[in-house]
Amino acid sequence: MFRISNIVRIPFIGIKRIFQADGKLQFWLSQITVVISTIIGVYLAANTGFEKAMQFENITKQRDVYYLATALQMEMEDNIKTAKEFTALLSKGGYYTKSQRLKFATFVWQAMGESSETFQIRPDVLTQNRRYFQDIDSILDKLDNKRLGRNNVINKMDEITKIFKEKTIPILQQQRDKIKSFLIKNKLNPDIS
What we know:
Layout: H1 4-20, H2 24-91, H3 107-111, H4 123-144, H5 150-185
Helix pairs in contact: 2-5, 4-5
């Protein structure tokens, strides 16, 4: 008579014979242990490697953001100095021509348009920098078209520059300090080449 239990027993009979012979049991157990150990080792190594790669990527990205923010802050400070020199020139009086118009340094600002790290910098800093350029440009357009007097131009530029210096620069400096402490914590001092 045909039984399902006989079919199920056939594969197990072969396994029993392998394990019953002398020395074969130890051989198969050692082979199974090697295979399992290899699988576990590969998994742990891959997992650790992935974690280290992600850490490295994060640290590298933060370093790049720190350098970009530092360059932007230096450019902003240079532009503030340039604006003050320009208002000092205007306050001396004399003849003003469009060729003497204030020109800001925008190398970093323009390069940021091509950088993937740009939007890692706080949006309010980017917005205030853009607005500063626009506001100063608008005031100078009015000066060029003689719709605004020299003294009004000086006062408005000084006011806009003061607000920009007192509000925007400290926000960017705070972000830079936070990134720098993160980098130092991860054993990378960004100020040392």
